[in-house]
Write a structure and sequence with these properties.
- Helices cover 41% and strands 17% of the residues.
- With 258 residues, it is α/β, with parallel strands linked by helices.
- The protein has a single domain, classed as Spore Coat Polysaccharide Biosynthesis Protein SpsA, Chain A.
- The strands form 2 sheets. It has an 8-stranded mixed beta sheet, sandwiched between helices.
- Helix 5 packs parallel to helix 8 and helix 6 crosses helix 7.
- Pfam families: Glycos_transf_2.
- Keywords: Glycosyltransferase, Transferase.
- InterPro entries: DPM1-like (IPR039528), Glyco_trans_2-like (IPR001173), Nucleotide-diphossugar_trans (IPR029044).
Length: 258
């Protein structure tokens, strides 16, 4: 499958060159789409310079900062219009290690022994996954957000809020990503619940999440509040459907043994 890695950026000039280079080295056949929300620090211009020297790097410029969800929606539509078969979400700050991307793509693709997944989640909270250099407060927010989302929405997924993911093009079409309205990491929760409700095959692959070394995190209190409110509403409105029997996602190791 032709693979596109979508990297949203806002004021990531210090990081975008390095992350693009690492992706190109780790998965040479993959293409990259930098979706820049009008970064005032010149991230978009630097991305243009990278694209000018590498035909596998593309840039989508947006007029202003509209949030992570809007950037991914635009990038996903661009990917489908261009005919890509596998679409990856990845942060620009290096927290999602490109060196782990081949394992996510391996789980996505079909082989002789095991049916490929529709959605692959890079998971910090399954066996073999973890985080590096996270303060206790950030760890608590992430684990707590995933736990609350699992409980409220009935999702048998360990890492509901993670943003390192791969989808087949058909999966994106089936879960109707363009109808999402969430921003921040709530977009990731929304995509997870839609994939599960659509009956897609979800596999969690362990990753190590590394806290950014340069630049400022975009995580803020408003993002957390949005997630709590939306998840609560989704949980209450979805109660009549909570008891339908659906297959649980697996880890990559479980899938190999199946």
């Amino acid at each position: 499958m032709r693979t596109l890695v979508i990297i949203p950026t806002y004021n990531e000039r210090e990081n975008v060159g390095a992350i693009v280079g690492r992706v190109r080295a780790s998965v040479p056949d993959a293409e990259i789409l930098v979706v820049d929300d009008g970064s005032p620090d010149g991230t978009g211009e630097l991305a243009d310079a990278l694209a000018a020297t590498d035909a596998n790097v593309h840039v989508l410029h947006r007029s202003g900062k509209e949030g992570l969800g809007a950037a991914y929606r635009a990038g996903m539509q661009w990917a489908l219009d261009a005919g890509f078969g596998a679409i990856v979400e990845m942060d620009a700050d290096g927290s999602h290690r490109p060196e782990e991307l081949p394992r996510l793509l391996e789980a996505l693709r079909q082989d002789d022994d095991q049916e490929g997944a529709d959605v692959v989640l890079g998971s910090r909270w399954v066996e073999g996954g973890g985080v590096v250099n996270w303060p206790a407060g950030r760890r608590l927010i992430s684990r707590g957000g995933s736990a609350y989302s699992r409980l409220a929405l009935g999702l048998p997924v360990k890492d509901v809020t993670g943003g390192y993911r791969a989808f087949t093009a058909d999966a994106l079409r089936r879960l109707r990503f363009e109808r999402t309205e969430s921003q921040g990491y709530c977009f990731q929760i929304d995509m997870t619940r839609r994939a599960y409700d659509a009956g897609l095959r979800i596999v969690e692959v362990p990753i190590t999440f590394v806290e950014r070394e340069r630049g400022a995190s975009k995580m803020g209190g408003g993002i957390v509040v949005e997630a709590m409110l939306r998840v609560t509403v989704w949980g209450l409105t979805g109660l009549p459907h909570r008891f339908r029997r659906r297959p649980a996602p697996t880890t990559a190791e479980t899938a190999r043994r199946a």
